[in-house]
Amino acid sequence: MPTGKTVKISIYLQEGATYHGTPAHAAILDFLLFRGVSGAAVFKGTAGFGADRRMHSTGTVELSDKLPLKIEFVETEEKVKDLIGRLQEMACSGMIDMQETVLVQAAQSSKKQESPKQQNVKIEGKAKLMRIYVGECDKWQDQPLHEALVRAMRANDLAGVTVYKAIMGYGAHRRIHKEKPLHLSHDASMMLSVVDTEEKLRAFLAIVDEMVFEGLVTFSDVDVIKYSHRPFSEEEAGL
Q1: Widest Cα–Cα separation across the chain
Q2: pLDDT (tens digit per residue) in 189-226
Q3: 202 touches 121 (CB < 8 A)
Q4: Is it the case that residue 114 has pLDDT exceeding 80?
Q5: CA torsion, ordered 33, 85, 22, 152, to nearest 10 deg
Q6: Which domains are delineated in the chain?
Q7: pTM to 2 decimal places
């Protein structure tokens, strides 16, 4: 990120707030990470109160689960404009503060790939099926690679993904991997299957290329006969 005029965003949440069944602060961090934001941090308050006018604080015996949380990041004004609408949705009843600031020195980082812009989920007729094959032991930033890929797909608004674990198979190393009754293989093959438009999947390939160092990715033509989902409950939507 170039130095100069930037925007600092502060998002204030209450601990325990959720977004689609996930802790809101974790969902927001995933969204920022996989949308190419340079960096973000979550700060936890030791005491505070909010719109409910109730004081929350940590005690010596019991820790409150309703303490204030603050997420902060600095980005260019252009990128913030692309993100702010989704952040308002994810913050729900929280507060978002925007301040103009000047970036004097940027942290050094590896090359990042710009993620595709958010699009509404709507599939009709012709689509593409993408399958990604990785190992159960594969990692990305110290977490299971298949889990990180699912988070990346959700953050980039792909229609949905299913992860399958192989019970037997072999790969490039020609070693047979098989689940046994008293022993579960720790290097089984994992397959991620996702159906979406070709445009969105092709755009997501740049992220796959950055995260998958050893594996297989395939594309197939599919016809979408029906795509529907039940509406979220208030609890699942984090309301």
Answers
A1: 63
A2: 889 999 998 999 999 999 999 999 988 999 999 888 86
A3: no
A4: no
A5: -30
A6: 4-103 (3.30.70.120), 125-224 (3.30.70.120)
A7: 0.59
